[in-house]
Design goal:
Length: 223
């Protein structure tokens, strides 16, 4: 595999490799989508009437924990199935949790600052989690290297992400309009689309990581 510089990335290439990552990791991806959808749909259904601020904090924290655990498992599976794991040490779950917290805070803070900064941060930190899981980098090193490696390609990455995620976002918006918040069908469809959007982000992180970092010893299987 030829490792690309971030500036030579193309939207079509990122989309193609993202779909390739999903194809190579189809089984864990399906398990992730079904499991995450069922868990979040159950949380959404049984907490639909809980609108107090503290209730919303607890619900949000619960979903965050579920999202972090399931994303870590899927990231690890996708990196292994595409041949992009090169770390020699053991589990890196706790550092991953810390990185996920910083990543989320950074993106949310950017979104509050007129949205675009949050999207740029999301793109520039796109490969931080694969760097941590795939190479065993520390949190600070992973965030810093991701920021540098993706320099100049943030809008290319965002273009690819929007191309895959916008149809799913449209489904979420349509469900909000067409279904009552307590309708279990609407809840399930919304959560299914949200889970698929998460897959887009995770698989694209692996794809971009493979394109501009790769594995030191051999080419990635999906390339």
């Amino acid at each position: 595999m030829v490792i690309l510089t971030s500036r030579s990335l193309k939207i079509g290439t990122i989309i193609d490799k993202t779909l390739g990552v999903v194809e190579h990791g189809m089984k864990p991806t399906l398990i992730y989508v079904v499991g995450l959808t069922l868990i979040n749909a159950a949380i959404g259904y049984y907490t639909v009437g809980m609108t107090a601020p503290m209730d919303q904090v607890v619900i949000g924290l619960g979903k965050f924990v579920v999202g972090v655990v399931t994303a870590y498992v899927l990231f690890d599976a996708l990196l292994r199935r595409t041949g992009l794991i090169s770390r020699t040490e053991g589990d890196v779950f706790l550092p991953y949790v810390g990185l996920s917290i910083l990543y989320t805070l950074g993106v949310v803070a950017g979104m509050i600052a007129i949205v675009i900064p949050g999207l740029v941060i999301m793109a520039r930190w796109m490969i931080a989690q694969p760097l941590l899981i795939g190479r065993g980098y520390g949190v600070r090193q992973a965030l810093g290297e991701s920021w540098e490696r993706t320099r100049g390609s943030e809008f290319t990455i965002l273009g690819a992400w929007f191309a895959l995620a916008l149809p799913l976002l449209a489904v979420v918006i349509a469900c909000a309009i067409l279904f009552d918040p307590a309708d279990p069908i609407g809840i399930v469809i919304t959560q299914l689309a949200s889970s698929a959007m998460s897959v887009v982000s995770l698989a694209m992180g692996v794809a971009v990581y493979g394109l501009i970092v790769g594995k030191e010893s051999q080419a990635a299987a999906f390339a």
